[in-house]
Hints:
Blueprint: E1 14-15, E2 21-28, H1 33-43, E3 49-55, E4 60-65, H2 72-82, E5 85-88, H3 91-128, H4 135-156, H5 158-169, H6 176-195, H7 203-238, E6 241-245, E7 251-255, E8 264-267, E9 277-281, E10 285-287, E11 298-299, E12 311-312, E13 317-321, H8 329-345, H9 350-377, H10 380-393, H11 397-401, H12 404-416, E14 419-421, H13 424-432, E15 435-439, E16 450-453, H14 458-468, H15 474-483, E17 490-495, E18 499-504, E19 507-512, H16 514-517, E20 529-534, E21 540-545, H17 552-561, E22 565-569, H18 574-584, E23 589-590, H19 595-607, E24 612-615, H20 622-627, E25 630-634, H21 639-644, E26 647-649, H22 656-690, H23 696-715, H24 724-727
Parallel strand pairs: 15-22, 15-24, 22-23, 24-25, 25-26
Antiparallel strand pairs: 1-2, 2-4, 2-5, 3-4, 6-7, 6-8, 8-13, 9-13, 10-11, 10-12, 14-26, 16-21, 17-18, 18-19, 19-20, 20-21
Helix pairs in contact: 1-2, 3-4, 3-7, 4-6, 4-7, 5-6, 6-7, 7-8, 7-12, 9-10, 9-22, 10-22, 12-22, 12-23, 13-22, 14-15, 22-23
Amino acid sequence: MDADTVNVDPSIYVKDNNGIFSLDILVSGAKCGGCISKIEGSLHEIQGISSARMNLTTGKLKVVWDTTDTDPKAILSKLASLGYGATPFDVEEANTLHSTREKQLLLAMAVAGFATANVMLLSVSVWSGFGEMNPETREFLNWISACIAIPVVAFSGRPFFSSAYTAITSGNVNMDVPISLAVFLAIGMSVFETINHGQHTYFDASVMLLFFLLIGRFLDAKLQRKAHSAARDLALMQSASVTRLSNSQSVESVKASDINIGDILQISPGERFAVDCEIVSGTSDLDTRMVSGESHPIPSEKLSRIYAGTINLTKSLIVRALANVDDSMLAEVSALLDTGELKKSRYRKIADKAAQLYVPLVHTVAGSSFIAWVLYNGDIQHAIFIAIAVLIITCPCALALAAPVVQVVAIGKLFKKNVYLKSGDALERIAACDYVVFDKTGTLTNPEAELQIAPEDNEDLLNAAQLARGSRHPFSRALALRAGTGPLAKDIEEVPGCGITGKINGVYTKLGSANWVLGKGSQPFNESALYFKRESADAVQFLFSETIVSGTLETFAELTRRGLSYEVLSGDAPERVHAFATKTGADNWKAGISPVEKANRIAQLEAAGHKVLMIGDGFNDAGAIANAHASLTPGGAVDISRAASDGVFSGENIFSVIEILDIARQSKARMLENFAFAAVYNIIAISFAVFGFITPIVAAIAMSGSSLIVTLNALRLNLSHSSKSKSL
């Protein structure tokens, strides 16, 4: 690829206040960890570049340099010379790229599946009639198989062939190298046998191997698109329109990216803060659950800094911008997501680790066999036959299928339990976790408040509900829900941070906090209570509480029994987190922490040698979710957290986490058993092949038999029972 063909303007880069330049590029064609090393290593060779970080999941390459002597054209030229496409990073374009790749894999999988069914039907006819079928009929069926298999392999095998080529050219070996070799050998030997009127072909093995492996590759592609959608959602938040007031008090609508520090903005009720701000005028209730995890709305006067992502609930506010989009809380979380996805991109799967040992060993043995037989009898043709027999008998069908078939069975089993896992390597990472971190609000407790204690007089409940129906406050919604449908009070007026007033049958009534309804100091301060008062009548109290998600106590007990440590991290108020910990027996907890502090805590645990499983549902959990070794979110989680996590489970019962851990660990055990079998099989097969005892018919039976064994072993997952019945 010529650098001039790269469709990117080299002048598109950013310079910060410290004179540091950066350029975000969308790279196409990168397939594996070897690509990352190749790209980053090559760019570091360019003078002045201080950092080059490639995110394989999102396709985003961030290049940083600190001198004007560095020419952006050199960066693009280097990428072009390496064979990768490059365009300015755009979230929508990146999403289109991921969506296109997913569709291509789905089409390749469908074509391979169609071919597998038809070629297997023909192969069964050939093998069942072996010794009885006349040569002409057998050769005719083989040619039909060839006509189906050859174009299908050329089409459906492209994801593996291109990945293998990229890995080899970058000096690495991944699982796609032996897969590609196996497919080429199976097709090549089959065509050779068919042309020479031979009896032994392997068209069925080539297309079947591709079909099963494409299932796993398709699931991986879905993970990448889901992960990229987290970055897209954040970008959409940061590009939202905002109302800006000029010095002349004129009003204009601008993009969030155009906001400068010091700009005066108007935030209407229901609108989200796009950048970090401070209050200039007005009071309102603010929903900070997305940012801090605080379960209850907070009066605006209590906050000196309002972080991006906060929602204004009740009254219009005039605020001053304290940061631009790139320096706001949203940008910090976006950076955390990017870092987390980069770390997951570098994760080496069990299959690729096995390939590192398998490929050089088998190729060395095949080469040594060729040399030994040439020296032994001088028959080069026979020596070539022996070498090819070694490669065919050790065709990595069993090795290549060892992990994917387990992943397909495990993900299918989890799906029946209302668990959606996004990738096969997520199973491996979950199985390795030894420390579990939980968010509280929305994960272990239901996000909506529940009326816990109501006055004995039902009339008070019904009257208070007439006021509550006019408010968006969570307590008001909970009260109105308990009372059911009914009328709305007249002349309703909501006082931010205090409560709501209105007239019921001509009588002035109030519903709100104790300090507002009864006067300051009249009652011990309780953030979980509302008071209702009708003129001179005595006030009545409504007490609200969080409800603990079903299965929480059992989950904590089961984690302890298994020797797994756990803790609760929450942005909620300390008194509420403490109350939760007291009810559930959670000894290790932290309250009032920010999204960055959550991510930092994960980093501390990982640095201490733990592999952390993070479970959360909010925007404030997204950074921690992305940076943990593995992560899960309940079904009610915000889109960004769901996209950044490895899987989604029904939030109705948190005990699903234990079931996921069980299946993940069982899956890893089945994978290791399959790899062990493949290793033993290859050792025995190589021994026979090297000494010339393997015929094509034996090779075909051995290959099919090894694939069948690893598949049956994977199906054992469906025979295992959940631990839920044992623990409840």
